Structures are given as structure tokens and as C-alpha cells.
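Work Package 3 committed the consortium to producing structural models of liganded targets before the mid-term review. Because experimental data for this complex are still outstanding, the team generated a predictive model from sequence and the ligand definition alone, so that downstream docking and mutagenesis planning could proceed in parallel. The input record is reproduced below exactly as it was submitted to the modelling pipeline, together with the SMILES string for zinc ion.
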Amino acid sequence: MSASLENIKTFDPFADALDSEAQTVNYVHIRIQQRNGRKTLTTVQGLPAEYDLKRILKVLKKDFGCNGHIAKDEEMGEVIQLQGDQRVKVSEFLVSALQIQKKTIKIHGF
Amino acid sequence: MSDVEEKKVVTELFGDLNKKKKKKSKKESTGEEDEEKASTPVEGEDFEFKKKKKKKSKSSAADAFDEQLEAAGINEVAEEGSAEEKSDNASDNTDLTYSDLLSRFFGILRENNPELAGDRGTKYKIPPPVVTRDGSKKSLFANVKEISERMKRPSEHVIQYLFAELGTSGSIDGASRLIIKGRFQPKQIENVLRSYIMEYVACPTCKSANTLLQKENRLYFLVCQACGSTRTVSSIKTGFQAHVGRRKKVAA
Ligand SMILES: [Zn+2]
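The resulting structure, written out as C-alpha cells with the ligand in place, is given here.
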């Protein structure tokens, strides 16, 4: 009996539904902003707290050959900022090096 | 459905084809003088008929068949009875794969009942965004209102999404054109509009774009006019306006 109950539990009919709850909790947002002229800025927001952002930033800066820093925001927590449009490269890095699932990464902008 | 029945259906679909084939063979077997006269045009017509069938309707095929009937004469009527009996063998000879039959079926269906076959396949189209430069630091999105109306969405909602996605701000001028801070290409705006459609226009259940955005108790609902499903969609404010410190300071 308990086994069948367990089975019922494991089936979640809304697993594929995009719950607003899941959205606010889990997503890693990668955004782009235009600065003066053709210069752009990439921001990575919502990385799980267990990651050491400083170490990640160090690797990213070296890998992409760009500068960057960590911005602290009261609401959004710590946000990695990188110079230039690094959105695709960052998302690849998050998937391959940090084992973050691709579907939890949201790339914004054009 | 049994094998025999299946074959029957097939032969019914391709009845005219089979009959024609048989007719030809019968003429050959009878070896009449008029055989040469009749068979050569039949051969040409057969080819033409096949071509026609691919793109045109059954009726034209039927016409071609009628013509042949007239040309062949009365003994055709007598053949028709035997045609169905022998058609089992005939259908074995014609190498019709499943995909052939399927494409034929959808061809006919699309022609006669396009709403049954093609509705989902038709692409959703919006006019291309007209984006021009406005000075060196701004872009002018001229037909934002037209596109919003085409999507049946309030232009404020579309603009809010654009600003959130592009990480910028802007204003609307007197001619209801959108002035965006920053330099953007039409292609880039198009990409953002595409993701807007994915998020706020296309029905997540049936992919139809025939949807309405309704607001209830501060929540946005996507109501599909095609399948009737209702889904909440994340509001732009909480979902996308969560911006980083640098931009917040600019905005504030
Ligand atoms: Zn629908």
C-alpha cells in the first residue's frame, strides 16, 4: 500500500508546467545591457549561494579575456558583471563547468 | 482492420488508377487494331495524370479518367466490375509506400478542409519591426503600436517587456513611436519580439497564437481562443524587471 502511495506521489502532473514559484527560485538570469557606444555589459544573476562567485569570476575573466566584478544588490544578491556580450559563453560555462541545468538558465536580450 | 479490408480501402482510393492500368493491359491482351491508337495516348495521359495528382485535386484526376472512359468506349463499363475483383493484384504491383499514401491524404485534406489539416502548420506572422537610429544613442521603433495590435496585446505591455529584456528605458513620442535608449538593430528587436510571442502570445498547450491576455487580481492569464486553456504567465515586473544594481541606480 505504501509503495503504491509512493508511486502516486512521484507522478507530478504539473512537472512540465512553468510555475511562477519555480521561476523566482531557481532561474539563473543572464542579461545584457548597453553602455556608451557599442560597449555592452553582461550580468549573471541568481547563481545558487553555494558557489564561490569570486572564484567563478576569476575563471570567467581569464577564459573570456574580459574584466568584470561582483555587484552586490540588496534584492538580487551578488551579481557577476562582465564586460562585453558574454552571454552565450557564460551559459556554456555554467552548464559545462558548474553542472547547472540548461533549462534553468535564462538568457535575456536580443 | 484486417489486411483485406485495408487493401480495399487502398484500392478504393486508387480505384481510378488501378482501373486504368487494367484497362490498358486488357486492351493489350485483346490485341485489337485500335489498341495502338488508344494505348499511346493513354500512356501519355497516365503520366500527365500522375503529375496532376500530386498537386491538384481528385476532380481533375477524375476528369482525366472520364476522358479516357470516353475514348475507350463502352466495353469500359463491363470492365469496371472486374476491376474491383482484380484490384487486389493490381495494388500489389503499384509500389505505394505508407508515406506516399499519407502525403496524398494530407494533400487532399489540405485542399478540401484546410482548417483540419493546415491550421497548426501555418506560421504566425507579424509585420517586421521598423527600427531606425535616432541620433547616436537612441533607436526609434516606429511600428510598435501596429505590432502590438497585431498580437492583440497592449502596447504598454510589449514596451515593458522590451525595456526589461534589453535592459534599457525609453519613451513614446507624439506619433506613438517608441524611442529606445541604446542602439538596436531591427533584427535584435525582432528576436525580443519573438521571445515575447513565445512567452505571452503563443498558447503553451496548443501553440496557437489566437490568445488573449487577461488581468485578474494583478495576475496575467493567457486565455487561448483555440483550445480554451488558461495559463498564468509571469508578470514582467517580478519576472524580468529584476535588474542589477547598476541599472537600478540609473532607473531610480
Ligand atoms: Zn491553446
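Reviewers should note the following from the model. The first helix of chain B runs from residue 3 to 13. These observations will guide the Year 2 experiments.
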